[in-house]
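Structure ticket #2291
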Amino acid sequence: MSVKHILFIVTNTHVIGPKKRPTGYFFPEIAHPVEVFGNSGIAVEYVTPLGGAPTDDGYDENDPSQVAFRNGKSIRRLSRSRKLSEVDVLDYDAVFVPGGLGPMADLATDPGVKTVLARAWNAGMILGAVCHGPCSFLGVKLPDGTPLVRGRKLTAFTNKEEFGYAEDDVPFKLEDALIEEGAQFLQVEPWQPKVVVDGRLFTGRKPGIGRPLGRRNCEGNAKYVDKRVAFMSLTERLPESPSPPRPAAQ
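Resolution: structure written out below.
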């Protein structure tokens, strides 16, 4: 059986908002899925809109999974990420977009991101995103011109969570923007885990952002278990058969 490959599209944003709040990708939202995918024998490759080393946010030295990622080889590859324009998304089996505040300032509007996600979706691939990552789906259009998210169930960082956390830093409210494009946004109480699977669209949101995690065993911590279930579900959906013939490049 051939090795499956997942393309992570990661933000290049280093600061956000009028006060130049330091930001980037949220560290566990790469560290945890990379661990799960690795344990499933799935390879991860990284791209960013501009290439190079992205900035991380939210690292917890008391989380063994995050420590392992920090000290591993995968983060070295991440630090030398390729430009999105240098890869062909059809060389991969799925696309995943981690969150953090950073994506709200670049992935939400980057034309290249929209093109890549549209090509991936139209080729029958799985798209996954967590937390603020679903902002990358905004502006992605299907061949008939309708928004990708229209009529689809999903979740993401909510308005209630943004209030008091980053409302003065982000350029828009993600929940409102997704609903405006026609998404069926599924709510949950603030800071609680939520996983939504609608066909080939996988979205999730994390609990406890900004809260001390303390020294815990990730496998026994419910707030990580739900997220891992989502990632494992994604791995189970990856195609076992050869990919269909590629459509012509767009």
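Closing remark: The longest strand covers residues 43-48.
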